[in-house]
# Entry
Amino acid sequence: MALYFIIGYMGSGKSTVAKKMATLLNYQLIDLDTYIENEQQQTIAELFESAGEKEFRAIEHGSLKKLMSSKNTIIACGGGTPCYFNNVELMNLHGITIYIQMETEALVKRLINANSKRPLIANKSEAELRIFINEQLKVRAPFYERAHYIVNGINLNAKELIAIANK
Ligand code: S3P
# Structure
């Protein structure tokens, strides 16, 4: 009857891990960004544009709270989810949190061609992206590191996830 939250920076592979876990456990899979988009009838980029980041964070917090009593569910969070309000405490209290850790350089490589749907990094050059990720990781890492489990996003193996799922 568990609830798992997959957290980590944009591009760290949260959705892939969440899918793997959901398949392994035969659990329901929820992508928080998609859930928000369906609720708000707007894409994340449109929400940032129309409401601004501050309002987006409030909406994200509200959506997350609605999902806290989900059972047998894996929730892939947005990269910023654990870093606002008391979101990380809430997740730790109601479920099991897994941080997918990845170094800046790997994130730069993965995000340079995957920034069009991500308003925070849209239109950044590779050099700008590197600086941005470095700076943001300094702020975000203390939140991410409060997760129950930390796994390396590079060469992540299914065995590690199975071990966590079996605990
Ligand atoms: C964000 C990450 C995005 C999305 C929004 C903000 C962030 O999710 O929630 O663009 O602050 O890191 P992904 O991590 O799934 O890209």
Q: What stands out?
A: The CA atoms of residues 108 and 129 lie 7 Å apart.
